[in-house]
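Re: zinc ion structure - here you go.
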Amino acid sequence: MERLQVEAQALEEYAEYRRIVGDDDGGKLFTPEEYEEYKRKVLPARLQNRLYVSWRSPTGMDCKLVGPETPCFCTHRYKQHKTDYEALPKERPIGVPCRVGRCPCQSYQFVPRSGAQPVRCRCKHLPEQHSAAPGFPCRACSKCSGFHSCFTCACGQPAYAHETVVETKEERLAQGKPVGQDVPYAAMGGLTGFSSLAEGYMRLDDSGIGAPSAELLEAPITSMDHPFLKAFQGPSSSAQTTPQIAGSSSDTGRVSHGKQSEADDMAYFEKRYQERLKMVKAAKRKERSPVTSKKP
Ligand SMILES: [Zn+2]
Ligand SMILES: [Zn+2]
Ligand SMILES: [Zn+2]
Ligand SMILES: [Zn+2]
Ligand SMILES: [Zn+2]
């Protein structure tokens, strides 16, 4: 029982490690020291320079918030693109090029799906039959002047009228759009609230705008704490076991890593959010109980 708990915690820490480091360790796990060094170096810039990526309707609605696992037109996922900037570029639009070797994708481009099927171009060919190079020319026919989908989004507008938008926190705030809370995770893209992977029209984004509440910041740091605070918490007692466990099952680790989907993004962040809510409620109950017990 105890051993299982230790292993569960190690796996949980491995998941957290993966969400923070992404592929930046080049496939070889950081030592605890390297991990701390990575966080010290990368997290401040990541929080400062986070890029929000969404697929925006001409009505101004973000019909899709892009997360780490959301595929690009180039077929690679958002997290495989250059999502961390030490200093933000001055020019607009900000490019988020693909980092996969020889991929011609110059900036992340969301492509909608119709159910489980990718939408087709008006030339009848699939997105992956087109080049991910600028202009998105078709490689399967000569009549196509570049990928163009007439698929109608749930917002009522055609796909081609939408735009993949990359913007900074200030740019979103200026438009009154939610920015969510600061998180240390890589490639968070447009995810600002939990359930935000749902399509715009059915999303209840209550993440709000601005700084986390005082309640959140003042709460004691625990293993279930706000991920940003937790990331800066010193290495925990089981930090030593993380590389070991992950190392001994590195193949399984890699497989499950490769199998991650957008649903996993949702499940992971939703779980963190629920844990946090539980903690806050429990803390409130503790605060209240001594008062009630004093009553006659
Ligand atoms: Zn690519
Ligand atoms: Zn791409
Ligand atoms: Zn085409
Ligand atoms: Zn074609
Ligand atoms: Zn739409």
